[in-house]
Structure formats: C-alpha cells, structure tokens
User: Which sequence fits this backbone?
C-alpha cells in the first residue's frame, strides 16, 4: 500500500488551514459592494397573509430594497420541487402542494420566508426586517401526523386531501398476514422515531452576485452538491440557465444531509442580486433561523409486528409507518421513508415475507428530509428494537436470537428489493461481543447493583444501503436524477496531478483520502496530488456527497479515470523507453520496464505529453482523462454495536459506560478517517437516543429552537469509543468499498435504547430517553426509584 | 459610534464601530480575521472563542467596546514565528477535526484549559471543561485525545 496508499493512517492535508483559522467558508467570502439580506419570517404555523407593509422598512437607514413573493412569481421564479416521484398503492401520483421561495398568500410553518430586506449592512437589514409589517389571519394548525390524519384536521394544501401526500406500500401483504396468523409468537410494538434538527455547526449561507454585462450569476453557498444546486436552480426555479450560473461550495462546515437541498434563501439571494442591479447579496443564517428553516430529520410513528415460528425463526414482518413531512415536500423527502427505509426492513436477517405501508403526511412544521442515515436509522431502530424485545419475550439471549436469523449466504435477495452482495454478520457480532466482554456483563451488572445502579446492555445489528446508486434502478423507482459520479484526472506537464471530482467534502477528508487512492496506484506522494471540488466552473458535473457515496461511487470514478491516464502514460513510457507497452509497470512514481532499471518519472511522462515532441505515432498531446462511474448495485455496510449503560434509579440519569462499534465497511482507505466518521455518527445517534428532540406544541411553535433547549450532545454526555472493523470486500466496485459516513448514526440509537430498557426492565420507552422518562419508566416497571 | 483600541495578535488596532458591534464582528468584518466563527446566537457553541487578556472568551458575547485596551489572541495569532502551537499540532495528529468549523474555538478553549488547569488533566475533566464548545462531526473522541496529548506537550515545554 505504501506509506500513503490505501489503508494508511495518513494525516489530513486539509487540516493546516483549519487549525490556523484560514479555512474559507461562505460567510468568510467578501465581494466588493456586497449588500446583506435579512428575511421576514412567519411567526405563525398557519396563517393567511392579509398584507405586507414594507414602507417603514424601506425608509430605514441603509435599506436598498424590500422584495416579496408576488414579485418573485411575477418574475417567473419557479416553485421548489421534490425530485423523487412516489406513487400511492392505488397508482396515483404523490400529492405535492406548491412551495414558493417567498410566500405571500398562506404561510404553513413558523419561520417560512415571506419577504427579504436588502441593506448595506447585516444589522441594517435585520433592523429593517423587524419593521416590515405583516398582517395575518391565523388558521388552525396541526403539528403531529396522528392529528393531521384525523377527520376535520386543518388542511394544509388543496392538492393533498386529508393532508395525505401518498399512501405507499411494498412487499407481500397476504404472505405476511398468513405468517402472523400462523406464528408461534408475535412481537408487536409501537415505535416513535423522534424529530431531529441536523445542526451542522456552520449555519447555512449564500452569497449571490449578478453580472449585468454577461447576464451571469455566481453563487457561493453551503452546499453538499453544488452541481445539483445549479441544475435545480436552472431547470426548475428558472433563476438562470446553467451556463450562466456558477455555483461554488467552498469550505463547508458540516452537512449531514441538511445542505443537500436547495432552499428558498439561495433562490432569493440570486434573484435579488439581479433585482437590485447586480450588487452581491449575502445572507448567513442565525442559529435560530437554522432551527426553523434547515430540513429536519426522522419523525416517524410506526406499528410493527414480527412473526416467529416455534424455532424462533422470523417468518414474517409487518410495518406501518406514518411519516411527518412538515409543511412542504423538500427536495428528496419522498424517497426517505420509502426506498431508503422500507427496503432495509430485512436488516441482517433472513425474513421470507415483509410488508410495509407508509403514509406521508403534511403538518405545519419545518419540512423533513434526509438527515445522516436518512430512512436507514428509522428502519434499523424498528428492526433492532423488535429483535431485542422479541428475545426478551421469548426468553432467549438477544444476540443468540439475532445470530439464529442472520443471513449466511450471499448474494441474498430480500423480499423488499435489496440484493445484499456480501457480508459476514457473525464476524462483527463476535468482534463486538469480545470487545465489550459480553460474557462478563452479569458480573458487572451485579457490581453496579451493589452501588445502587441499574446496569444494562443493548445490541444493534444494523445494515444500510450506500453507494447511492445505480442510475437506471433509482430512475425506475422515481428518482429525477441519475446517481453516478464523475472524475477527471489531469497530469500537469511537471508531473503533478489534479483530481477533479463531483464529490464534495464538508468534513469527510476527501483532499487526503482521494489523494491516497492516486498515491496507491502511482506511488507518488500525496502532496503532489491536488483534489479539486466544489466549483461548477472547475468540475464539469457531479452529484455531490451524501448517502455515504463518495468512496464507493466518487472514488470509483477516480479509479476509472486513472486507468485511462495510466494506459496512455504507459504508451508514452514504452515509446520513450523503446519497450513493449505490456512490459511497463508503475512503481514509486515511475514507469519502468519490468525487470530492468529503465524508467521514466511522472515528470518525464508529463513533459513528453505536453511538449508533444516525441509521442507515439498518432497520439494526441496532453495527459488528461475523465470518467463517469455508474454503480452496479447499492453497497451494504453492516455492523454490530453494543452499548452498556448505568442508570441512577433516583434520578433516571443514564451514563454510557461502554460503547463498542464493529463495522464491516469493505475496503478502508484511511482507518483514522473512517474511525472519525464512526465516532461522529455514534454521537449523533446517541444524541437522538438520549438528548435531542425537535418538539412542536399543538399550535405549531417549535419549543426546542435554540441551543438553550435543543440538547446537542456535549463532550461530557458521551464516552470514548471502541471501534473495530471486520471486512468482506464489496464485489460491486473496483476498490471494494461500502461506505462509512452514516453507520454510526444508523446503528447506535437502538443499541442505546436496548441497553436502557434492559437496565430498567421496561420496554415501553421512547427517544430521547431523558432522565424524566427513564425515571418514570423505572417506576412503571415497579422498580425502586431511589437507591436504598 | 465608538472608537476602540486594542491589541490583536500582537498588533495595535483601532477601529470606529457602532456601539452595538460585537467583538466577533469587529474581528471578522473590520479586521478580516475570519478564523473566529459564529455558530449560534445564544453563546452555547463556542466557535467564536478567543483569548482576551489570557482568558478564553466567547467573542459573540462581548461588545467590541468591552475589549477596549485588551490583549486579544485569535486562532490566527496562536502559532508563533510560523511554528504551530502544540494544541494545533495535536488536533492534526489525532484527527481532532473534520469540517473544521468548530476547530478554532475548540483549540482556543483547549489552550486556555491547559493553561488554567495544568497539563496533568484527566479525560473526565477535559470533557467537563468542553461544555461550552459544540462539535457535530467528531463525537469529541479525537478532540479529547488531542487535548490530552497537547497537555503533555505543553507541560514538557513549560
């Protein structure tokens, strides 16, 4: 592999600018004569707008203009779209209500943008936004899916009767019903997956600039996928044609899904820059705005039934899920509780029959979309709470029940579309049990009891589908885009290398790991390899980074382009060395005639390619190749997570005393980076399990809308982790990679809750398991609540 | 408007700003020191931590005028003569950062933590002391390792 190749713990190239304060995030970018935007936002969850009076605001110091939604509509700016079409059971298309970037008629969630103030300074813009007077006629609001589906519930969109967006199904209902009726045991649970606010630490921002001379726009923005942003802004919102719009996503401070989508603010800043004559318009969210505008995650209410035969084998699984979509359909919202959720309900288990139906529902809350894991955490939470609860009901060890039902042979076709290509589930189960000393748990529990503490252990065996995804397959399932990736390899005349990628790094370390792939192939130092990304003027096209796809898809595209470059370079080397092309090997940055000391360096090859003085007959000058890689299948990372907790029965306070993650990610490029991804995912999952909750009251007001009341995990809320890897190579892509970005957030919530419920002897517990809920559940289980 | 004078990263600076201008805005907008970040509006996240007269301070919670006469160090001023501070080195060595947005505040808090509590600091204390700094990427695991490692370095250099 070499010191910097695949598998090496290489320190990150990108770190220097971040640790010295020289990172360049969107809000750090300055353009001459820039103005500042502040949005006027709805204070009501549901209201008809009677009028918008901006006269006082327009007269305030520094105000350039105040723009409203009727002007946006008049200028032909299109409504926001959802890019994945889902049909209901009866074949009818999904019921999508109109979503305007600025709403001037009916607002449907607190925080919805109504008008924008453009001013000379940020403070002036915010002051003037306060002075814009909006008259509202309040309408009844609804925040929960249960309430939104009731007869007589407030109706959000005329297009969606009963607030129902779709009623979708997958699987064989008759087969599952038959399994349930003939089962030796049925485990039934009602399971809620709590709503989360993504909270990337860098708030969303946009800096838009219109050049009247060229009729050209430039947008700096906090995006995980700048090319998709440009495509959508052009094709659907009619802001500008693609060749007249450059989108740059510079350093981006975390995404977790929330920066995939194209939000109203980016559209408005672009449109406003032209509207005011071409001065740049800058907007950076305050955290309070992030809470009421960034797409939230999760928010499912589920009823599940799992059927077992007399040998404790699963024979059927039935799931009904109601998914809260919020007030509008966000860009990829529709695929999250369907093809990213129900298709993973087989977990790591051999289940002959699965049926799931999903009702997607409008409510007067912030739109919900993909958040780290996106559907797969919700599926894993259902499957793994069911498995743990079933084991307790059946009186068997939860790890034994899982192992008994593990899929052992691959490829394995599940009843819900997915065909698992490779895995080794016993291996990561064994690794996790060893790491946590599973056998020693009873003694630790007894010791904790002697101190008056309740100790519990919980397991979670997750599977996810990553490497999203074969374009034709997702197209047949309703996706509006293909999900391939592109790469271009440029060898410069001096032999240094630039990799242009459609993937985007917002913390994932691509500048290092992508260079490692090149170093591994050529034997050159990673310092001679630059990774270029995040600018539609530099990289021709790309689908961006989400769904743990940048390794399995993005790096595969780089490999394909590298193969082309290497093939041409070998021809040049053979020509220069007067050797046979088939005898050329690449070692330590040199092209050698195998078995001899004859060699040409990368610099020799680069110079030859670009001087073109002495190339093989008919060869074009230059050394630059591109490739598009379309995956052949999803990839299937899987693992076993085990969590051990101690609970103080007097307070209900949970402490995680041990957490072990054993993952199979296939080939790992940089273990240091992969472990970092796991750590971060684990804490987001632990946050969901114990701390985080986006809570709405019945009137649609977000009660946890700041860091004062939305409990972000702090360093002293979580432990250090034991992270292990087992490996089955993914057969579907050239590097054998599966993806690691979301696993931690997917696998950890059920491990934590299974541990807490084990400790307190009560399965009736919902996330987040706050001390108050845990304390009450201890009482309900009839256990003493105060240490004696 | 108020005219404020202070020392920032060893240089005397003077600026005339609105009375309500926050120290973080003076640093970012007037002085162009954009390494100090703003991640929240309620003084919780700690992305804006700088040193003011040797103490870790959230620059979003101070008016620029309150820093009159103060000695300010930002992340840009932590390295000396081109040599990274041991805490900066440790964050890189232990992969204590991913997206980098919380990193300047984390490093500034961590340096002051060790200055205040000494290099013989245990994991539990480090975690407790990081209460005012939120990271969404790393799960804190490697940040804690980095701080422990740098604490040893800072101690041996003392």
Assistant:
């Amino acid at each position: 592999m070499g010191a910097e190749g695949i598998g090496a713990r290489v320190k990150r190239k990108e770190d220097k600018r971040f640790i010295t304060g020289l990172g360049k995030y969107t809000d750090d970018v300055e353009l001459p004569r820039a103005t500042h935007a502040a949005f006027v936002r709805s204070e009501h969850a549901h209201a008809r707008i009677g009028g918008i009076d901006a006269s006082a605001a327009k007269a305030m110091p520094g105000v350039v203009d105040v723009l409203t939604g009727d002007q946006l509509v008049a200028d032909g700016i299109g409504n926001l779209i959802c890019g994945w079409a889902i049909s209901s059971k009866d074949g009818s298309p999904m019921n999508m209500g109109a979503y305007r970037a600025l709403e001037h008629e009916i607002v449907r969630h607190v925080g919805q943008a109504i008008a924008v103030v453009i001013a000379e300074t940020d403070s002036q813009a915010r002051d003037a936004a306060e002075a814009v007077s909006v008259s509202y006629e309040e309408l009844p609001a609804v925040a929960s899916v249960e309430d939104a589906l009731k007869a007589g519930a407030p109706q959000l969109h005329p297009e969606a009767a009963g607030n129902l967006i779709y009623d979708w199904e997958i699987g064989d209902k008759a087969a599952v019903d038959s399994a349930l009726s003939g089962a030796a045991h049925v485990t039934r649970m009602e399971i809620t997956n709590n709503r989360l606010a993504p909270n990337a630490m860098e708030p969303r921002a946009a800096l838009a600039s219109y050049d009247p001379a060229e009729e050209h726009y430039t947008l700096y923005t906090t995006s995980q996928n700048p090319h998709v942003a440009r495509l959508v802004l052009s094709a659907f919102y009619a802001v500008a044609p693609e060749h007249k719009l450059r989108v740059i996503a510079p350093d981006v401070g975390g995404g977790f899904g929330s920066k995939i989508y194209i939000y109203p603010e980016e559209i408005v800043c672009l449109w406003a820059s032209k509207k005011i004559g071409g001065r740049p318009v800058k907007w950076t969210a305050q955290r309070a705005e992030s809470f009421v505008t960034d797409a939230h995650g999760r928010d499912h209410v589920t009823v599940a039934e799992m059927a077992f035969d007399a040998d404790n084998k699963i024979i059927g699984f039935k799931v009904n899920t109601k998914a809260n979509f919020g007030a509008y359909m966000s860009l990829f919202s529709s695929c999250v509780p369907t093809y990213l959720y129900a298709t993973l309900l087989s977990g790591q288990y051999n289940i002959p029959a699965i049926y799931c139906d999903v009702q997607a529902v409008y409510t007067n809350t912030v739109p919900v979309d993909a958040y780290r894991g996106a559907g797969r955490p919700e599926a894993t939470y259902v499957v793994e709470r069911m498995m743990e609860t079933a084991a307790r009901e059946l009186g068997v060890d939860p790890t034994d029940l899982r192992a008994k039902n593990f899929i052992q042979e691959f490829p394995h076709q599940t009843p819900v579309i997915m065909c698992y290509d490779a895995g080794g589930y016993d291996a990561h189960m064994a690794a996790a049990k060893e790491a946590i000393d599973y056998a020693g748990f009873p003694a630790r529990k007894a010791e904790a009891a002697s101190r008056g503490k309740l100790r519990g252990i919980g397991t979670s065996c997750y599977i996810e589908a990553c490497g999203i995804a074969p374009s034709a397959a997702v197209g047949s399932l309703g996706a509006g885009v293909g999900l391939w990736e592109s790469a271009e390899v440029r060898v410069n005349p001096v032999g240094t290398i630039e990799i242009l990628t459609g993937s985007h790094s917002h913390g994932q370390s691509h500048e290092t790991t992508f260079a490692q792939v090149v170093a591994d192939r050529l034997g050159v130092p990673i310092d001679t390899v630059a990774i270029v990304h995040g600018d539609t003027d530099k990289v021709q096209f790309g689908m961006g980074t989400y769904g743990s796809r940048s390794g399995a898809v993005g790096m595969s595209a780089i490999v394909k382009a590298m193969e082309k470059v290497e093939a041409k370079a070998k021809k040049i080397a053979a020509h220069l060395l007067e050797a046979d092309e088939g005898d050329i090997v690449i070692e330590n940055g040199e092209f050698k005639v195998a078995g001899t000391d004859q060699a040409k360096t990368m610099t020799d090859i680069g110079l030859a390619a670009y001087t073109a003085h002495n190339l093989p007959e008919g060869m074009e000058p230059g050394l630059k190749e591109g490739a598009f890689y379309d995956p052949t299948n999803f990839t299937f990372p899987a693992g076993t997570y085990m969590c051990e907790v101690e609970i103080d029965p007097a307070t209900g306070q949970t402490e995680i005393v041990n957490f072990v993650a054993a993952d199979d990610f296939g080939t790992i490029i940089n273990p240091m980076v992969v472990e970092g991804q796991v750590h971060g995912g684990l804490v987001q999952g632990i946050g969901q399990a114990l701390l985080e909750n986006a809570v709405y009251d019945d009137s649609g007001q977000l009660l946890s809308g700041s860091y004062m009341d939305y409990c972000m995990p702090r360093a002293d809320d979580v432990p250090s982790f034991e992270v292990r890897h087992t490996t089955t190579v993914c057969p579907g892509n050239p590097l054998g990679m599966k993806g690691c970005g979301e696993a931690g957030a997917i696998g950890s919530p059920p491990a934590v809750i299974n541990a807490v419920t084990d400790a307190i002897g009560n399965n009736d517990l919902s996330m987040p398991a706050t001390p108050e809920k845990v304390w009450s559940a201890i009482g309900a289980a009839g256990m003493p609540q105060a240490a004696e | 408007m108020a005219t404020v004078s202070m020392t920032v990263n060893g240089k005397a600076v003077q600026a005339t700003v609105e009375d309500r201008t926050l120290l973080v805005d003076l640093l970012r907008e007037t002085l162009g020191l954009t390494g100090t970040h703003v991640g929240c509006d309620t003084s919780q996240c700690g992305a804006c931590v700088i040193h003011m007269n040797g103490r870790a301070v959230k620059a979003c919670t101070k008016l620029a005028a309150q820093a009159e006469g103060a000695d300010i160090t930002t992340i840009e001023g932590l390295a000396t003569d081109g040599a990274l501070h041991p805490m900066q080195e440790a964050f890189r060595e232990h992969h204590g950062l991913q997206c980098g947005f919380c990193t300047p505040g984390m490093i500034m808090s961590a340096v002051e933590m060790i200055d205040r509590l000494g290099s013989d600091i245990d994991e539990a204390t480090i975690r407790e002391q990081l209460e005012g700094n939120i990271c969404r990427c790393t799960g804190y695991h490697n940040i804690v390792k980095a701080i422990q490692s740098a604490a040893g370095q800072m101690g041996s250099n003392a």
In short: Chain B has a mean pLDDT of 96. Helices of chain B lie at 23-30, 86-93, 103-117, 123-129, 141-157.
